[in-house]
Amino acid sequence: MDNRRTVRTMNEAYFTFEGKLNKDTLKPFKRELIPYGLNLFINSAITLFGLVAVFYFCGKFYRLAGICFFNSIAVILMKQLSQLYLIHSLNKVGFTLFSDTQEYRLLFYPEFFDVIRKHDNKIISIYYSHVNKIIEKDSYIIIILKENLCFPFYADSEQRDLWFDFIYENTPESLKIKRLRR
Question: Which has the higher per-residue pLDDT, 38 or 6?
């Protein structure tokens, strides 16, 4: 079986979006970048440490209450630092891929999508099987790949709904799509 594909033009693309990868476009998604199970575990640990601290404080075990309260604060700080580190690492991977100007154009086809770097017009084709999840928040959409690379882009409401219909039809069912309406 021949895995090569024919090169398509921009006119043949079903959808075209402009995107830019920087810290400002990644910040709205920082809560969604951490997996749900890990986020639930961290929030449970924070709650548990807080409740145990209150219990010890009511029982006049101030030293143990202080230790539990400190642990709760430490877990909160670790969660915030992990979100910042994740944003920094995604931005760093994007910087190595896109050089100084981290701007790109996304062209969507039924089997794959193309990422065209703006500074040199190099085309990177990505099949939908490499996509880990797609998250929508406000007017932004972010495509996160299994290789820890992401592509945030802006879409107006009409085009966004048509694009999601297209994605539901053409992507594998195992793809996680999260739409956060606010």
Answer: 38
